[in-house]
Design a protein that fits this description.
The chain is 81% helix and 0% strand. The longest helix is centred in the middle third of the chain and has 40 residues. It is elongated, with a radius of gyration of 21 Å. It contains five helices and no strands. The chain is an all-alpha fold. The model has no long low-confidence stretch (mean pLDDT 89).
């Protein structure tokens, strides 16, 4: 199963879940019992938060993949990091080369390409939180430049 298919399957399962929970929420609310009404409201609010979070993650994935394809088409996706037999970049090498990519992003703070490459190096070094921040910065810079 591809990543896209997995994401679509999860979205479809979430939609089914929302329909079933929404139906149950209406049943709770219509009882008139204060505790049941509170549970019904919670059953409506919490899935809406889940939908927002899922949409945000899907949008991040779609936008980051679009930028990756653009960078690859331009020939800028090669980071020059040694890779392991599994195909993943070597974490130690990524950590050692990190300063160069950070300097590139600092030298060109308005370049989505530099920020995306920095995000890729963060990811290769195992720092997922900063990788996502750098990729989000790349997405915002690309959006602002359009």
């Amino acid at each position: 199963m591809t990543i896209k298919a997995g994401a679509l399957l999860m979205a479809a399962l979430l939609a089914l879940y929302l329909a079933l929970v929404g139906w149950r929420a209406v049943q709770f609310i219509t009882t008139g019992d204060p505790v049941a009404v509170a549970m019904g409201v919670a059953l409506i609010v919490l899935p809406l938060i889940a939908v927002w979070a899922l949409w945000r993650e899907l949008a991040f994935g779609i936008r980051s993949q679009a930028l990756m394809k653009r960078l690859e088409a331009e020939g800028g996706l090669e980071l020059g990091l040694p890779v392991l037999p599994s195909g993943r970049p070597d974490r130690a090498a990524a950590g050692a080369e990190f300063a160069r990519f950070k300097a590139d992003a600092e030298a060109e703070p308005d370049s989505w390409r530099a920020w995306l490459r920095l995000g890729l190096v963060y990811d290769a070094a195992g720092d997922r939180r900063r990788a996502r921040q750098a990729v989000r910065q790349a997405i915002e810079l690309d959006r602002a430049s359009r």
